[in-house]
What does this fold into?
Amino acid sequence: MDIAFDRNSTVPVYRQIAEQIKTHISAGRLPAESRLPTVRRLATELGVTRLTVQNAYAELQSAGWTESTVGRGTFVAAHTRPQIMRHRPEVNLTPDGYINDLLQVGNAVGLRSLASASPDPRLFPVEEFATHISTDPAEAASVWQYAASEGDPALRVQIAEYLADRGLRVDPDEVLVVAGVTQGLSLVTQILCRPGDTVLVEDPTYLGMLHTLRSYGVQPLGVPLDACGALDLDQVEQLVIQTRPRFLYLVPTYQNPGGTSLPVEQRHALLALAEKHGFLIVEDDIYARLTYAEEIPPALHALDSGDNVVHVGSFSKLLSPGLRLGYVIAPSSLHSRLASLRRAIDLCSPPLLQRALAGYLRSDGPKRHLRRVLPLYRQRRDTLLNALDRTMPDGATWTEPRGGLCVWLTLPPRGNFADLHHACVQKGFAFSPGEVFMAQPQAGRHLRICFGEPTPETINAAVDTLAALVRERLDTGIYPIPAGWRPLV
It folds into this structure.
């Protein structure tokens, strides 16, 4: 095996070794059931201690990449070839089907994913958060049984204080605790929409919202974003007048899938449009605190002088998706209806986790956590941008996010990339096909690349593989530009 590592890197040597062995396995250079060198031999070849190699092998085994047998050695696991996300290139992906794939991809041994906009589970503040889980019998009555549908009172107080950092002035009674942004958006859609209604969305936008809208029979109507995250406000106004949408949904700060942000002057102009025409804006603020800039753009809700904005957020990207805890801040006319629907669907969020999160917020845990993880995410973003700049052919463009976990790649208009997503999976790397993020899909022209979970070594290997596959498809000849194709960035 050809393995190189940097002793001066912030990534431990054993992890660098493990990542490169994963690359060899993904690329097929170490087929399933092939034997790895002994610990002694590999340590000697690399000039490291046996403990370093043992730790690398232990990490591979714990993740299911290898299997060890006493007396026989360490072998590549027999099930390392990924079986999910192997859609035929000619099959159109749907948001629903692709969300199902994303929920499985993390468990696909042999497949390394840059497809999910998720934080790195190795960075979750598990131990610190666990100290706030109550084992006090005196609290059993309040945290080990049903709780209020609006949320645990202690957590609502802490969320109100937490939102003050985003410029929101809210009372705890205005906070509705929900099971993440997805449930919050689902509740809002069910309250405001009926089958056949129209909702305006950014194009591209969060695929979960597209799935939510379509599952309720609501038609998403896309408004294109430019490279800087700006909307065509003239088009927004025309569509509002023509279609009378139930609301406009957007992720204005570090958008998913592009990582861009709505310019501040457009935020004010958009709110003026909402006031003029009387439409609601649903603001998804989930990525705002994952910032690599000096100043986070203001929340729309904080700039709103009327009741024109529903503010939705969660702790899935900041702390852990497994908490399934988020919040909705809605005008008073909607709040009670949302709470009533919440009671009808699942009654309440887990009281024990709510109380633990309240304690974690009270102790300023998120601020400490961000100080630890933001430099790492910034490094991974920079690694991804540098790798794209180094490898991508002329004609490819991409966003340069100042926050969040995503980059949106637009492929050159020359070439046939219909099978690119499929080909990447065959090489052991997963990206997200851009069509699932678009109200009006453009198959094969875009990819979302996420940098939250993969290490810099994985990012470089993945982009090298992706760029090689892109160039192969450029070399196959000139193909006509599909009807309706337009570069988003």
